Amino acid sequence: MGYLLHEVVHTPRPGVLVWAGQAGFDEAAALTWQVLGAAERQQLRLSLGFLPGYQRAPTDSLTLVAVPDSLLQRWRSVSRVVEVTAAYTTLDEAEAWLAGLPQQSPNLSLLLMELKADLLSISDLDALQRVAPTATALATASLRDVIALATLLRQYPSTQPAYRQRVLARLRQIVATSPPQEVQRLGSVQEEMLNSADLRQLADTVHKRFVELADQVSSAELLPALMSWHDAPDRAWWQQSVRATLTDIFAAGSTAAARLVFDLWQQAAEVNTSYLKLLPSTAHTEALLLRELPAQMPAMAWQNGLQLARSRRWLRLHMSCLLALYPLPKALTKQLALDTEPAHMAALEVAAKQAVATDFVAAAVALDEKRLTTLAGNLCAQKPQLLKKLAVEQPGWQSVWLAAAQISGNVWANIAAPASKVAQLLDLLLAGQPVLTDLLALIGQSHYADLRAYPARRSAWAVLPTAVRSLFLEETAWSLLVHEQPEEANSLLEPEVIQSFTSPSFTARALAHLSLTAGRAVRYVSRFSAPESTLLSYLNAHRSQFDKRSAQELGQLIERNGWKQAAQALLTQAQTEPSRYAALAYCFDQLGWLDRLKLRIQNPHILTAKTTKQASTDWWKAVWEEASNLYSGGPTHQHLWESIGRKNYELSLARTGGEQWQQALNILRTRREYKQTAKLLRLMQEQHSWNNNLQFLANHPIYE
Quick one: pLDDT at residue 54? Predict the structure, then answer.
């Protein structure tokens, strides 16, 4: 009968169990009936059989057939045969429990007591037997065994809640200390295996454990566990736990989070996409990924990273992924197709830092994009030797050179043969090729804007941009002034250069130049028709001694142009620099009458060319000028004219005061009334004792 119990427990359903012969069949049938559950009893069939082909077992039923000994051989190949004489005494716990031997089934008996339920079927007994040892040794049971036990409890709602919680607590305890590979086993638990409350507790434990493991193990160990069961519809609880785990890990922004992202990149896009969506779309996250970015990864990983960066508009990360996938020029081209904001430099700066400097400069030259040339210019400003390969005929090189010059403040830093470079740029302009105006402007501020030696100088002025032409003209003119003598009449100059020489600002600068002699200054003013103010600037800037020829040329220039202020300036300077008197001798007539008079009296040796009659005329004009200023009403004012013995009717009183004074002084001079003239001056002195001019005229009369 022990063998029969064994076969009843372990025979698959549906199935046929053969009893050899008819002896003991009734007892065997009774035992089979006894050990079956209520539902299985309804499916049990008892019969007498001869040929196997005529025996049809209904679905989910167990059939016990009595077969004569002579026909057993036909049944052995298709069914289990129980020999009446077969002995089987080593019962397992399920068989012992069915046999009513609880002392031989301690684990199963304890479990069934905790379940507080009848067997649903004989097959349940076999499953209960397998988990029974786990129930007995719950405190030391493995994760897999506890999962099996917890799953089986789901089929027995009558199980004591306290026991169910002990099993779940043990399960959570194991999870809380297990490595990723063990925790991953929980992914095999389907939704129907545990009730929703238990699944929630278990999901919370898994979530917390994975978060802890993120800082304890490598992402390569953790990721397989997280990726398992990612698309199983009957494991939603597990997937929710994994998503909560990734959300927390990503939010922490740790190195572990970055490495986990990189490992996700190495998975197929259809697998990692849903998980990478949990990554926060923040600048901090991008910075974290950039900081931890590996030097090498498979191409698929970089492609997945590129897709993520593009979707999040993480342009710096996008640039880094492109650099890992493509040669620098192609990577930059693809980046520029996405990164179009002119003010956004950060992503392209990543390329400038990662790439070899010479390669980046070459790529920037080829692409000639403003941000790239600015970054390349910055590299060249830091390492001027990068400009050694400068080819000005390439627009990109012009842009890089310009950027480097703007950053360093030196347009010629490490530029070989500067004059040759300027000539090449001018040749491009003459050939109708583009040249950057801003670059020309910087060159125009250096002394290499001097085009004296450029063969096509006369043609260059027409093609130079208006904004910079004046710079080149001024530098060329200045160089001509310093190294040649453009003021000479035989010096051949283009109209544009002459115009530069005649500009007030340049002329003022030129005449203030300390190396310009008085003779050259005179010839400069003469040839380029400079105004009197320019000569005044020269006289104020140059206080050195004049040679005889220079003094003569200067005086003649002042006299020829009638420049009274210049003559006055010479007179003022002559008080400290006597060589100025030599020039005054040739522009004497440009001085005021009083100044001429004083000069005649104080320095008669320089005026040998002037006659006494001219001196007398100056004296009378000086008296007229002073009298007109002091007595604007004429000589009749305060009875001056009558006070010296004259009559008012002698004057045309209807005229202006100045005209009356002219008439009065003419009467005194032509009639030689010198005493009356002296008396008039004394009366005027008495009324204007502070007037030094009156005193001088009275003390130095030149009547004729």
Answer: 58
